[in-house]
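User: Please fill in residues for this 592-position structure.
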């Protein structure tokens, strides 16, 4: 037995409190390297005297660990411990003989006392309520709809549009089509009829571009979209229909036309706002920026990416920090919004986000905080910063699996491993609140990824809805809208039903209804019971889903159970009894 067969990290996604009395402990084990794993645990200060009162022994317990999930190379084990004293020392007992502890692997046949040598035990010092991760209770039940306001619906807004709706050959971010708040309000019944219960809006604050990620005034709605009164009506009407509203907080950077930055350009170090930005040299105007880039030099000021028109903010500056926190508080207090999506949140300090969380939660405890992180986000999801992140870690493997021509080696087994490893990289209490997506205003549309294939589109949406977390649809995704990378993905919404994929819209409406009706959709734990080449079978609770991205096939397994087919189609080979799935076929089955 070797220590490297096992992996555990204390005070992490592998050891966390789900509430003040419950500890979840996970262990990653190299496949087939142990047949039995138990956990030895107890309060480190709980020692009992022997009958002769001359010696002490540790008051510990031993529990068997369960398999949570598994990948091709590892088994992932879990145990949930009730801890009334909230303190816990623990180690892992393998095959009844080996103790895997914080420092080394010990053979208890040679050293029996290692079962209570707490120097080699992992430690969870004390469960503190204020350290426990919590998210608004409504998030895990929400189905999201993401809207790019200028391109969603133009309602009585002819003066704000510079182009006719959809009347262009190529989109860019300087075009304005007149989508507005009144238009979004008018379409709330449409969203409600499909079953959506949350709306995420890309920025609506005053800014020169169509995308509004270059803020000029955080306290004003861009006149292109309408007025504050109209926005208040939109939020109130959404709430009446049971729909939450989340706004986009762009606190990483502002427009180069923001008054703070204009003052720095004009007055340099004499500007009171000079330290609001990361200024490297003067002058710090756009022309100087472009010249530095041309010469292969560092630009005179830091920006989002290398975009001269989006100077980066120094959120450590106390006055700027207070200004931004006042912005966050204002829109929650004044308009009763339900949350913030945080743009480029991984490039802003953890310290700022801790203050941000305290600010908005003090106003509205169930306010949702959603980070835009494209990579693993554990450090932001420890209970003191974000409630969730946009879960691109599920998105990327789904893209690769279903875009077979671009990723021919990404088969069902590879997909299974990618999904499992993402799942176990977060605490179970976190993963149920992740914001799952197939596309966004920053990516190619999913229909274009799949070249408009209707069967694969239905499959991939079903797959996303089954994964733990809250599913979302990017506006127009429900009618099969296509679009390449930004800015082509930001096309105007197709409202002409003659040009919509009505079959897909009907399918998604049914899928959203099932998501509300079937509790298993919202379960966190899932199992991949079969993964081979083009076929993957996923199970959650009493639901089982079969996905086939390739040709029709009779599966060489009997793991597909009899039951009621809720979506898709499936039959069985009369000779073998094995299940048969059609070309690019799928089936969602409720087990009997």
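Assistant: Residues filled in for all 592 positions:
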């Amino acid at each position: 037995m070797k220590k490297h067969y096992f992996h555990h990290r204390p005070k992490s996604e592998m050891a966390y409190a789900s509430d003040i009395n419950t500890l979840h402990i996970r262990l990653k084990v190299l496949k087939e390297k142990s047949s039995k794993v138990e956990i030895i645990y107890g309060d480190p200060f709980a020692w009992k005297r022997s009958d002769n009162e001359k010696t002490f022994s540790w008051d510990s317990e031993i529990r068997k660990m369960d398999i949570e999930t598994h990948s091709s190379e590892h088994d992932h084990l879990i145990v949930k411990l009730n801890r009334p004293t909230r303190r816990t020392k623990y180690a892992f007992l393998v095959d009844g003989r080996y103790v895997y502890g914080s420092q080394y692997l010990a053979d208890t046949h040679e050293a029996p006392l290692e079962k209570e040598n707490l120097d080699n035990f992992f430690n969870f010092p004390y469960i503190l309520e204020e350290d426990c991760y919590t998210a608004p209770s409504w998030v895990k039940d929400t189905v999201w709809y993401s809207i790019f306001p200028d391109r969603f619906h133009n309602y009585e807004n002819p003066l704000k549009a510079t182009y006719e709706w959809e009347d262009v050959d190529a989109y860019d971010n300087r075009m304005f089509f007149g989508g507005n708040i009144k238009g979004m309000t008018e379409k709330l019944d449409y969203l409600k009829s499909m079953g959506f219960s949350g709306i995420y809006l890309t920025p609506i604050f005053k800014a020169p571009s169509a995308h509004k990620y270059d803020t000029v005034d955080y306290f004003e709605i861009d006149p292109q979209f309408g007025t504050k009164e109209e926005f208040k009506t939109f939020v109130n009407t959404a709430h009446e229909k049971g729909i939450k509203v989340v706004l986009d907080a762009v606190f990483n950077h502002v427009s180069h036309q923001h008054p703070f930055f204009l003052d720095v350009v004009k007055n340099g170090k004499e500007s009171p706002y000079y330290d609001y930005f990361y200024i490297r040299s003067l002058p710090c105007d756009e022309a100087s920026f472009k010249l530095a880039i041309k010469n292969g030099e560092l630009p005179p000021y830091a920006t989002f990416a290398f975009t001269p028109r989006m100077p980066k903010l120094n959120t450590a500056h106390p006055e700027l920090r207070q200004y931004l926190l006042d912005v966050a508080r204002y829109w929650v207090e004044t308009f009763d919004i339900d949350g913030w999506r945080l743009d480029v949140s991984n490039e802003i300090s953890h310290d700022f986000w801790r203050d941000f969380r305290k600010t908005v939660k003090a106003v509205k405890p169930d306010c949702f905080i959603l980070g835009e992180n494209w990579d693993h986000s554990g450090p932001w999801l420890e209970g003191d910063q974000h409630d969730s992140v946009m879960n691109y870690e599920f998105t990327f493997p789904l893209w690769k699996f279903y875009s077979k021509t671009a990723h021919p080696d990404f088969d069902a087994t590879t997909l299974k491993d990618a999904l499992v490893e993402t799942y176990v990289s977060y605490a179970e209490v976190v993963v149920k609140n992740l914001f799952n997506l197939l596309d966004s205003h920053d990516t190619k549309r999913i229909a274009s990824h799949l070249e408009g294939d209707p069967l694969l589109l239905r499959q991939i949406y079903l797959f996303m809805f089954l994964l733990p977390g809250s599913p979302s649809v990017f506006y127009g995704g429900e009618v099969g809208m296509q679009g390449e990378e930004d800015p082509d993905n930001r096309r105007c919404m197709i409202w002409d039903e003659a040009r919509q994929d009505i079959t897909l819209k009907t399918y998604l409406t049914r899928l959203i209804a099932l998501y509300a009706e079937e509790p298993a959709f919202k379960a966190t734990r899932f199992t991949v019971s079969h993964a081979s080449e083009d076929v993957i079978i996923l199970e959650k609770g009493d639901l089982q889903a079969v996905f086939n991205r390739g040709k029709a096939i009779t599966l060489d397994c009997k793991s597909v159970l009899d039951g009621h087919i809720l979506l898709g189609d499936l039959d069985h080979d009369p000779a073998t009894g094995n299940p048969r799935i059609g070309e690019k076929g799928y089936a969602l089955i409720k087990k009997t």
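For context: The chain has four domains: 3-131, 151-252+317-522, 253-312, 527-591.
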